[in-house]
Specification:
- By secondary structure, this protein is mainly alpha-helical.
- The chain has three helices and two strands, in the order H-H-H-E-E.
- A two-stranded antiparallel sheet has the order 1-2.
- Helix 1 runs antiparallel to helix 2.
- The N and C termini lie close together (9 Å).
Length: 85
């Protein structure tokens, strides 16, 4: 598994949160780009999953650093993906 550089990941999170807080339609495309960057860095499909993955990376409790993301609630089969730090 590729693990993102913590500084690069933090920079991407900061950019995403800054753009998301703006609320101006002029930042819609940069916000989409920032969300895409987070997804690529964390191996997730949505910005929400990416932010959850980032929280896991920063979790002080090692048992919280392993979580399964699925394509739909209750799914445990082929669409299952794991994020492990």
């Amino acid at each position: 598994m590729i693990v993102p550089n913590p500084a690069v990941l933090q920079q991407a999170v900061d950019r995403y949160l800054t753009l998301a807080a703006d609320g101006d339609m002029a930042v819609a495309v940069p916000l989409q780009n920032a969300a895409y960057t987070l997804c690529v860095l964390t191996g997730t499909r949505t910005a929400e999953e990416a932010m959850a993955a980032v929280r896991l990376l920063h979790s002080p409790n090692p048992s919280h650093r392993r979580q399964t993301f699925t394509d739909s609630p209750g799914e445990t089969a082929p669409g299952e993906r794991e994020f492990v730090s």
